[in-house]
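Predict both folds.
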Amino acid sequence: MLIDTDTFAVRRIAPETELAPEKTALLIIDMMARFCDPAWLAGGNPEGRRWFEAGLERVIPNIRRTLDAFRQANALVVHAVNAKWTEDGREVVRYQRGRDYDRFDTPAMSVIEALAPRPGEITVRKVASSAFTGTGLDFLLRNAGIEHVVLAGQYGGACVFYSLIQSREFGFDNYWLEDGILHASEPDQRLITALVGSRWARLACSTEIARALKVSG
C-alpha cells in the first residue's frame, strides 16, 4: 500500500473484477526518453535525482508488466507523448512554452525502448498535459468500444492526473496503476494517490490488472 488507508477511505479494484479486453484500454503517458532521465527530471537536485532513479526503476517494469498483459489479451494500448511541433513551440499550451522539450518523434521525445509502441498500438501526440486535450483520444476510444481506462506513466500529479479527470468527464471507468505511476516527490505521491482513490478512480497494481484481464501476470 502506498497510502494510509486508516486515514483515507480509498477505492481499490475488487478481487472479483473482470475487465473485458475488448472494452479496456491502457493509457501510458509521457514515458519518453527525456522524461525518463533522472538527471533532467531533477534539474540538478541530487536528492531529487535519487528519488527519480528509484521511482523509474520501480515504475518502468510494472508498466511493462501491464503492457505485456494488454498485449497478451489483445486489448487496446495507447501511448501519449508530450512535445512540440514547431521550433518555438507556439502551438503548445502557454504554461509549457519555454520548457526544454524537443520536437515530436525526435529520440528525446520518443517512448523509451522498454515500452516502445508496436504496430497496432496508438500513439497520441499532445501539446498539453492531458492526453485528451486537442488529440481526439475520446473519439478513438469510443469508436473502439472502450469503457474502462487503465492509466500509467508520469507525473501522477500532473499529466496522468489531468488525463484521469478528463477521462472521467468523458464517462470512462478508470483504474489508477499505482505501482506504474511516477510522482514528483513522496508527499505528492501520497496526496495524489489518496485523492484519486477517494473519488476519481479505483487503485490497482500491475498484478491485479493482469488478473482482471484474465492473463498471467
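Second protein follows, with its predicted C-alpha cells after the sequence.
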Amino acid sequence: MIEKKQKRKRTKKKGGRYKRGEYSSIKSGQTCKFRSGWEKVYMEHLDADPDVSTWQYESFSIDYVSNKRTGKIRRYIPDFRVEYTDGSIEIVEIKPSRKLQKPTVQKKLLAAQVWCADHGAILRIMTEIELKAIGVL
C-alpha cells in the first residue's frame, strides 16, 4: 500500500528575518516602531543631521491605483517625511535595490512622485547603495 505524504502547514517564523524594534527620536519626540535595520540606522542619521529640523515615520498615506482594469485603489505609506531647516520637504522610501523593479513598488513610487509634485516635496529612494554613501551602513 502506498502511503500519502501529509502536507505540512507552513508557519511564519516569529520575528521574521528583518530587524524590528522601537526607536525614540530626539527630533520628532516620538517612539517609532521600525521594520528593518536600515530604517533604524536612517532614523539615527536623521536625529544626528543638523540640517534636519524634524521628521515623521509612516505619518501619512498616498492612494494609488493597483489594478488599472478593475480600478482597485490601495494605500501606500511612505517610510519618512523629513523637514529640513531651509524649509524643504523630502519623502523618503527605504528599499533594497533588488526590489525597485517590482511592478507593485513601481506603482507606489509613481504615486509618490505625483504626490510630491503636487505638494512641493522631493521623493528620495534610499537603497543600500545610498545608505552606504552617507555612511550609515
